[in-house]
Amino acid sequence: xxxxxxxxxxxxxxxxxxxxxxxxxxxxxxxxxxxxxxxxxxxxxxxxxxxxxxxxxxxxxxxxxxxxxxxxxxxxxxxxxxxxxxxxxxxxxxxxxxxxxxxxxxxxxxxxxxxxxxxxxxxxxxxxxxxxxxxxxxxxxxxxxxxxxxxxxxxxxxxxxxxxxxxxxxxxxxxxxxxxxxxxxxxxxxxxxxxxxxxxxxxxxxxxxxxxxxxxxxxxxxxxxxxxxxxxxxxxxxxxxxxxxxxxxxxxxxxxxxxxxxxxxxxxxxxxxxxxxxxxxxxxxxxxxxxxxxxxxxxxxxxxxxxxxxxxxxxxxxxxxxxxxxxxxxxxxxxxxxxxxxxxxxxxxxxxxxxxxxxxxxxxxxxxxxxxxxxxxxxxxxxxxxxxxxxxxxxxxxxxxxxxxxxxxxxxxxxxxxxxxxxxxxxxxxxxxxxxxxxxxxxxxxxxxxxxxxxxxxxxxxxxxxxxxxxxxxxxxxxxxxxxxxxxxxxxxxxxxxxxxxxxxxxx
Length: 508
What we know:
Blueprint: H1 9-21, H2 31-43, H3 49-57, H4 63-71, H5 75-89, H6 93-113, H7 118-126, E1 130-131, H8 147-159, H9 178-186, E2 191-194, E3 208-211, H10 244-252, H11 260-273, H12 293-305, H13 310-318, E4 346-347, H14 350-361, H15 387-391, H16 411-419, H17 421-427, H18 433-440, H19 444-456, H20 462-472, H21 480-499, H22 502-505, E5 506-507
Antiparallel strand pairs: 1-3, 2-3, 4-5
Helix pairs in contact: 1-12, 2-4, 5-6, 7-10, 8-9, 11-12, 11-13, 14-17, 16-17, 19-20, 19-21
């Protein structure tokens, strides 16, 4: 592989793998591509023309690292990553009710805002008790109705282990036995949800998460309870009213745990790099090895040493050459989609894409009951009606699986881009972006450049400008009003073409 600037240990180990496989790395991406990429990945928004110009004109050799440091202070960062962890933790109004959802959302948002260490967050969730309204994190135990469900949710959320197959028999692709499954379930045997029996049951009913002192989980084949034990952990002593979950939380978040840090690192890596070191990201097992074991191991140890610092992990990855690599395909790496010889283009998540369309057209989506200007990543859950978000793959948050989010393209998406209201209605908006630009600039070149800058974070090439000007300057009409109307329609077509292009729809 061609030697390039090395940002940190990530690059040492990525280059080591590329050299072993005789893969050539693409060069570093340009400033325009970098700022667009990191804004969309970390903030969920496009850079404004002012931000783009300021960054690209800056001659400071450390400007990328300075830009990275600054984005964590922005409210969009809190919105974007709160939304992401709400996906993982399955915040759903239909399950939690309005009050439970609000309380749980406030907890997650506060954790992102204060940069709560991932091990502390996990501990607070695993050991949560009390009122689900007064203690929002207790809502974790309302997403499930049995010790078995809790064991499965915890394993997949915090360990990246799909334990479901061991419910009825020994896992066919992993070492977990049915006995292991019920030992893990026994940790949650005494967790119960209590509410006032005099009140009609509903998701909005206040519930208390508490411990039952006698309940146990029976192994269906053996016909007797299993001793509580975490996966690959020692049996938890059953002593009176002791909360078994405390011992579980200590095991889960221990630096020696082979799954906890690796699972989280892999999730963040997938989000930023487009391809997890493990795929799927929540299926860590011996029979599904990572593409770069040394990298995952080193990055996981680094994460532990950082104090499970979520922001530090994101910063560490995006400062690497691997993240800042161009998406340009070289003959020597065109087949690579696993080893990061180039940046892997990917379609924007549904929420980011909808906000981007609203940002560049001057009209964000209006969600019923919420104030205008609410961005999609500020929503608390995914039950807010939206045809666009459903078409483009937002998760319903019904199962603990990354597979809920759809990242594929489809004919339905294409038809919506062509004929749907999301783009077409915004292009025609009175006082929208296009209307304002046509009033502001009498020359077509200025309008073209601003559309490209706002939508694609770059200026048009000379070839693009010449072709567009040639087409636009043939605007017909015998009166000023007719020529103005024809010009507006021509630019509406151009804006539609930009917004439905791969360059806009994909991060690259």
